[in-house]
Amino acid sequence: MSQHISPADIIGEEKAQLDFSQSRSYGDYLQLDAILSAQHPRSPAHDEMLFIIQHQTSELWMKLMLHELQAAIADVAADALGSAFKKLARVSKIMEQLVHAWDVLVTMTPAEYSAIRPYLGSSSGFQSAQYRCIEFALGNKNAAMLVPHALRLLARRGLDVPASHTERDWTQGDVENDAVESAWLTVYRDPKRYWDLYQLGEELTDLEDAFRLWRFRHVTTVERIIGFKHGTGGVSYLRKMLDVVLFPEIWKLRTDL
């Protein structure tokens, strides 16, 4: 007959630390008191807690994305591509987490959302500053973004990238350029010679692929819950964003390769 071992016995045998009065605990390190007390539903509806935690969790993941993207940008600028690849791959995995997060929110029905909507006021995920920063960091109208650093890297490696795309007003939107695509085509036609640049192109493709999926799941989730009403951010805006391409030359070269 096997001897029954209680959880208390295991704790005693392993000498698990139970007194944290003189040291930092798990909750202290993670600031769990602050995090877990940051949910303040305004309506009597049961489902508002889901809505709040969904968006708070997404903002935490986006904070990590920005942390990784900013470091990856610095790596590319310094030709430290190996380190940049690791960070960009991590960002793609974070995007996968954000995509799957919509699977939880879509358990909220239109009627359940309607019950909390009057209590949200003018607040909307459309107002997320971190989401804007992520788009900007990837290349959508910002002076400190990934695109110019990647293009300057191609130029430093001897590829013909026009000055208009290495030094310009980066607060303005990017314009697709045949010469930039030609530079990337050179890389993709000879991946052995330009292996690290080829890998960079694929990391950027993976990243945008994941970002597109997130955008698509966003708009379909909104449509599923509120239909085609303007809502808080505007379904029409979300649909237009589906057509925004962050790295157009890298996608177009696949047709011309």
Description:
The chain is an all-alpha fold and about 260 residues long. It is about 65% helix and about 0% strand. The chain is built from 12 helices and no strands. Helix 4 packs parallel to helix 7 and helix 4 packs parallel to helix 8. The chain starts with 6 loop residues before the first helix and ends with a helix.
Summarize the structure.
With 257 residues, the protein is mostly helical. It has twelve helices and no strands.
Set down the secondary structure blueprint:
Blueprint: H1 7-14, H2 26-30, H3 32-36, H4 48-77, H5 81-105, H6 110-116, H7 129-138, H8 146-156, H9 178-189, H10 195-226, H11 235-241, H12 248-256
What key phrases describe this protein's structure?
single chain; 257 residues; mainly alpha; globular
